[in-house]
Design brief:
- With about 110 residues, the chain is mostly helical.
- The protein has helices spanning about 1-5, 30-40, 50-65, 75-80, 100-110.
- It has five helices and no strands.
- The chain folds into two domains: about 1-40, no CATH class; about 50-110, no CATH class.
């Protein structure tokens, strides 16, 4: 989506795209309807790394005992990584618990290491 918004046209993801924790929100081609809406509203896209997503998942677990799936942790990851500056009344929605239990255990265990 970020590349599409920057170029002003839909840019499909090329072959060999890297794997990501956020496979639920990784799309190979942006839908024209969604792209049109975001383009008209002058939306901007941010990218976060798997490490930043893992940090957000760990924080949600450690501070709030929330199990958050990776794709749902990207907003919090962007805030924690300083990629977006919060303004008054900023809300980060954390939803879903659709994360492989072994991956969750590995991510949480990284904090203890």
């Amino acid at each position: 989506m970020g590349r599409s918004l920057e170029k002003g046209e839909i840019v499909p993801v090329g072959p060999g795209a890297p794997a990501t924790y956020c496979d639920a929100i990784q799309t190979l081609r942006v839908a024209p309807l969604t792209f049109g809406i975001l383009q008209r509203r002058e939306a901007r896209a941010l990218a976060v790394t798997d490490d930043e997503v893992a940090d957000a998942i760990r924080l949600a677990w450690a501070k709030h005992q929330l199990v958050v799936e990776p794709g749902a942790a990207v907003g919090l990851a962007a805030l924690l990584a300083g990629k977006i500056e919060p303004v008054e009344n900023t809300v980060a929605v954390l939803s879903g618990a659709n994360i492989d239990p072994a991956l969750l255990a590995d991510i949480i265990a990284e904090a203890a290491a």
